[in-house]
UniProtKB/TrEMBL annotation:
SUPFAM superfamilies according to UniProt: ARM repeat, MFS general substrate transporter
Record key words, sorted: ATP-binding, Membrane, Nucleotide-binding, Transmembrane, Transmembrane helix, Transport
Keyword Ion transport among record annotations: no
Lipid bilayer topology: Multi-pass membrane protein
Subcellular location: Membrane
Species this chain originates from: Marinoscillum luteum
Protein's name according to its UniProt entry: ADP,ATP carrier protein
Alphabetical list of InterPro entries matching this protein: ADP_ATP_car_bac_type (IPR004667), ARM-like (IPR011989), ARM-type_fold (IPR016024), MFS_trans_sf (IPR036259)
Principal location listed in the UniProt entry: membrane
Family in the record: Belongs to the ADP/ATP translocase tlc family.
Domain of life of the native organism: Bacteria
Residue ranges crossing the lipid bilayer per the database entry: 27-48, 60-79, 91-112, 118-142, 154-173, 185-204, 237-254, 274-294, 306-332, 368-389, 396-415
Amino acid sequence: MLEQSKDLIKAFLLRTFDVREGEYQRVLLMQLNIFLLIFTLLVIKPVVNAQFLSMMGVDQLPLMFLMVAISAMGVSMIYSRALGSRSLRRISNSTLLISVILLTFFGILLKLSISPALVLYVLYVIVAIFAVLSTSQFWIMANLAFDAREAKRLFSFIGAGPIAGGVAGGYMTSIMANYIEGTNLIFFGAGLLCVCIYLNNVIWTRHIPKLTRFQRKKRMKDFGDHPIWLIRQSKHLTYLALIIGIGVIVSKLIEFQFSSVAVQSFDDPDELTSFFGFWLSTFNVVSLLIQLFLTRRIVGTYGVGTSLFALPGGILLGSSLLLFAPVLWAGIFTRLWEVSVKQSVNKSATELLALPIPSGIKSQTKSFIDVFVDLAATGLAGLMLIFLINGLDLSVRAVSILTIFILIIWIWVALKVRQEYLNSFKSKLAQIDKKNVQPDYSNISVLNGLKRALETGTEQQILYVLDKVREIPDKRLFDNVSQFLVHQSPIVRARALQSIYYLEKTVDPQVLEGLLSDPDQEVRYKAFAQLLRQTKEQRINLIHNYLTHSDPTISGAALVGLAEEARNNEEMKRLLKVEQRIHEKIDYIGLSENPEEKYLYKVMILRAAGHANIPAFYPIIRSFMDDKEVRVINEAILAAGFTMNVTFIERLAEFLVPRETRKNAQLALLNYGVGILPELDRVVRNATTRAEVTHMIPGVLERIDAYASVKVLLSFLNTNDVMLRLEALRSLNALQRDFPHLRINKKDILGHVIDECNVYKNILGVFYKQRQLLPVHESAQIKEARTQLTSLLERRLDGTLERIFRLIGLRYPPDDIISAYEGIRSVNEHVRLNSVEYLDNLLEPTLKKALLPIAESAMLDVLSKDIIDHLKVTVPDEKKCLVMLLDGRDAKLKLAVFKLIEAVGSVEYKEMVRPFLNSHHEKIREQAAKILGQQAKTS
């Protein structure tokens, strides 16, 4: 009977909420955990609020707003730092345990009437901080428990937990307060938190997958780099932060008015507790009903701009009522409108408002806006109320006047942010395709704007919008997206399938079956993933039928789709025998005689092994990296990237060098996310890493939208490897072009420019000396070696000049500086002169003094002694020239010097080569041994 009940529950969860095999316990435990957390909060908060207001009076509430803001901001900073050094499990359990201890301790003090005033101040702050931390750490844990695809599918169901907890907790408190003394409910809440600690441990032990540190870094959201600077740099973000901040200020003013009229109506603390409990739950119920039945219609019909006025408009009406009639029903209406509309219509509109902002910037600033902007606004509201109520001794009516004034500012900011949204959306589409005329997106809703872009946009614009559809998976976009399933571009077809996956709509199975035979393998994989997502009954039979399909393209798509679906679901892996099925495909390779069929099976195995992330298949991936076919090697590279395992990083870096594997190696390394940065830095610093590999690393870093990329690339400018410095500068210029929000400290640039100018002069001195020695009567062998060396030095001068200009391009507009550099290198004398004149007008005095003489000398075709003297270049003797070149890290220059030393045949010069017998560079080691007449040492 019990098993039958379990099966019925599972069937219901699968049909209704798409909770799949292997996810039931994880999902239900997570939902129960957040239910209890919010339930506890809604039990304790009405009690503490009622006790505080009854004993201390409503005029002390503004002071509490300020204390909560200061205390919570400090705790949040400590908490954020702790997350970087300690495990989330330990922090989460510690937070709950400390909350239990504090609630119990201060509850006892309150019960015994020991310093009740101080106790209530502390309890009020504790409850407020608990509200911030408990929900925050739960959703961090949820992001570790579920990957992005699972989260999109399951978080709406898990999100029902806090809603149910909020409703049940408040109503329960309202009822219990009539029978139990309010202070006793604090102990009840502490007991519930003990249950949460137990649930936490069960979830961490059984249901949090073993993730690599790269996977954890990808999933955990924390404060980004320089969020304040990012917000200041973007009008759009500035207005968005202002709207959120103003909303918090207004919310606190209304909360004060609501509490004031409530205290006037209820003298008894338990009655006040019951009142607060009932209405807190009612606010949640109304908010849920609006979210379910009205939000999409309002936001979708009237657009993001108009929807933003729903919240301030209703509050304006409520504040006007409170101004003329500061009574209970007016306070309830205003607070009801503020809470319910804020959590439904306004929240959806604000999320849509952030749509044009790049996801990298959003992720870096969201936590800051959600926490610090919220807390700062709370503190500001407290200061305003202290000034009005405690300082000027004004009434609740005065707060209504202040609220109305702030609402006028809110409406003005809403008008500004609506215009900025449209400007951002249009400029992004225009930036993607500058050649085509852009449609008019003014005066349309977000949804219609996306639809119009999908209908009339170019391929690149369509891809951009399809990505945005994943951020706001509105089902009304399904018809617009599904049309691209037959698009001529395989990239568009695959991206459309990916978007539909997040829209959670059903595609005609016959269409998907046709796509399973698509010429493009990515389309095939995405088609099976969609087929698997929308099939709720007989999933096992479906998987088995496709896995055993006679066509290897279809069976391959099924295996890869299954592996990706079960990646973090160990129970599903076991149930569907993922590892066994991959082994069967491996065994089949030896039986097949058709080379193309063998290749398809290899691709199938590699993609499945990479996505499933089963360590037993790592040796298989490594073995295919040595395959005879480049296309198989490329698939093995991608598979290694899918695993996000640290042991593959160095090997993947090696594949950056050959052109035929470079693109896939970059994609594989980028898949590790921002956590790859320290590892790539380590690869570059490793003395055994080939120079060719280190020179390719900046090309990967320039595609990672994080300030850490800037810091690592800037650190490369301090190395002795001139080619690495040049590549780092090119990548910094690319980062500044593609991610202008990533700030580069301009002060650091000046020092590097001066250093590069000195390098240029040193190379110029060596070059001038070698050119002087060329006409000297020497053997043909010496002349040839010296000519090769001077040619190489000339190229190094060009490279150093480019580095100087790219450095300046980090301080001034990069496009203008690069144009000036190209002008100086021009064969047209008039263009060269204009470029120098432009630099003379642009550069600050220090840079002008360092750069202009070099720029002028670079313009000249002949290097004379007058130029050398003008630049104050020291010309070394020949021995010193060779020593300088051998001290650097430029392998090609060293080999050119070796050739000259060998040709000259001087014993003194040959001894300069001896230290290089132990070089990590194989060619340098071999040439040194050859010059000294020794056997080269093996590495």
